Write a sequence for this structure.
């Protein structure tokens, strides 16, 4: 059988393929467009012409917020993006000065912080990013395409493309690892092989990359999981000036003893997204009376007030998220050349922390930086062990949001996951920190800067902040609790 030839040197590394047209795939395509002559993005869905939820992104109907670091990253990748998003109706708010935060039942002391977040639906953000990517020279987004697996050299040491087939509406899930393609295989009916010098898997939590690698003789990456069994329900309401006293939103964070939470985000000036969530067996109802009763058990009156007084715009939508999962590609001793994994396929977080879009955009910046460094050093694109370098750099990006999400979930004794020997001591300090932040706005500002990934978590434990915690602890009152 004829084998797929290696790309000619004159066109070395000229084509990159991205699997998945979600935010991770689109931002990866943006990074690749600076280094490759052509970039093809493949997605299983029919992509909507207007901002709308789609089948392949079920969480797109849920509340989303663009964290401060994520906003900065998207602006870096797409200059002018934030102004474009605001012009389309998104909102901008100081997270401490224009929203209420309840940490362990304590109301964070409101004050201007300079930590700016953006309220917009996931479909809205993805729509504007996709439009920017499709406008890039050499980039093509193909919809309703199912990727069956990578094609490799006969030695299976690097990818030479991907094997795909058209996907009809209503088709079942993509095939398993046994359908992985290799150079020299004969394509089945309707299949085609797309040659590529680099393949980036951004297909989300359902990524089959570990199985593909195993089929090709590579080890599966080790996985770390933290199981919190999150269930959340989102509904949209008409926003009026009197709601929340004019504030843009609220966040009520679960804590041991009360594994329930909620949040409100202004997606537009006239529209709220409201989410209720529960962990470890707590499940918010999806009916109007049940949602209100659930909200009334939360610290503070904010969510219940909106549910009680605002006009609903649609029906509630429920979603389950069993566990955060991190795939440690950075620890593999051997990598398939020309094959990367990014976004939720690399690491997915408890969605109540709102970190997914930000982490994906940061990983795209890492990829762009590495490719630019190769170019500046005169190396061919992707040379010098790009997978090894990318996975190590991406792991450093993932470290902070993983620490925040996994650490927050592991506060609950019932959560399943590995705990370190110092976790108990750290948790006791951070419990005091949260209470102290109700009276010291500086502590609140730092907490939010860390939560929005603008500062490292170690900043919470700097000597100056430890001293502030000790001074403020005696002045902090008891938690605000609304009894059921």
């Amino acid at each position: 059988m004829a084998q797929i030839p290696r790309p000619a040197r004159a066109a070395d590394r000229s084509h990159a393929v991205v699997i998945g047209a979600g935010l991770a795939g689109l931002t990866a395509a943006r990074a690749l467009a600076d280094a490759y002559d052509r970039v093809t993005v493949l997605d299983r869905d029919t992509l909507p012409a207007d901002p709308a939820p789609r089948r392949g992104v079920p969480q797109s109907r849920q509340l989303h917020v663009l964290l401060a670091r994520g906003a900065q990253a998207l602006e870096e990748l797409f200059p002018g993006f934030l102004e474009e998003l605001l012009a389309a109706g998104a909102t901008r708010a100081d997270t401490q000065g224009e929203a209420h935060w309840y940490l362990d039942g304590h109301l964070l002391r409101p004050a201007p912080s300079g930590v700016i977040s953006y309220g917009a639906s996931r479909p809205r953000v993805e729509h504007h990013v996709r439009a920017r990517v499709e406008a890039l020279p050499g980039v093509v987004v193909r919809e309703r395409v199912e990727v069956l697996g990578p094609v490799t050299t006969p030695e299976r040491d690097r990818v030479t493309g991907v094997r795909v087939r058209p996907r009809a509406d209503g088709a079942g899930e993509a095939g398993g690892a046994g359908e992985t393609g290799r150079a020299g295989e004969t394509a089945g009916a309707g299949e085609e092989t797309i040659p590529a010098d680099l393949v980036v898997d951004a297909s989300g939590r359902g990524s089959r990359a570990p199985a593909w690698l195993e089929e090709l003789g590579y080890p599966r990456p080790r996985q770390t999981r933290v199981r919190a069994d999150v269930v959340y329900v989102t509904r949209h309401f008409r926003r009026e000036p009197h709601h929340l006293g004019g504030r843009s939103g609220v966040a009520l964070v679960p804590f041991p003893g009360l594994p329930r939470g909620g949040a409100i985000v202004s997606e537009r000036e006239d529209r709220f997204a409201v989410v209720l969530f529960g962990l470890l067996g707590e499940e918010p109802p999806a009916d109007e009376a049940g949602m209100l009763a659930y909200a009334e058990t939360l610290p503070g009156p904010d969510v219940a007030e909106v549910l009680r007084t605002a006009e609903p715009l649609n029906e509630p939508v429920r979603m389950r998220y069993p566990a955060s999962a991190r795939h440690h590609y950075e620890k593999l001793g051997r990598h398939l050349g020309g094959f990367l994994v990014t976004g939720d396929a690399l690491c997915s977080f408890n969605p109540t922390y709102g970190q997914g879009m930000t982490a994906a955009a940061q990983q795209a910046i890492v990829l762009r930086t590495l490719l630019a460094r190769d170019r500046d050093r005169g190396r061919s694109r992707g040379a010098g062990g790009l997978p090894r370098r990318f996975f190590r750099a991406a792991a450093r990006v993932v470290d902070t949001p993983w620490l925040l999400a996994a650490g927050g979930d592991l506060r609950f004794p019932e959560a399943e996951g590995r705990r370190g020997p110092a976790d108990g001591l750290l948790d006791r300090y951070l419990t005091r920190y949260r209470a102290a932040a109700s009276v010291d706005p500086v502590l609140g500002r730092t907490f939010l800067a860390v939560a929005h990934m603008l500062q490292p978590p170690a900043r919470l434990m700097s000597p100056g902040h430890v001293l502030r915690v000790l001074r403020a602890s005696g002045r902090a009152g008891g938690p605000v609790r609304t009894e059921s």
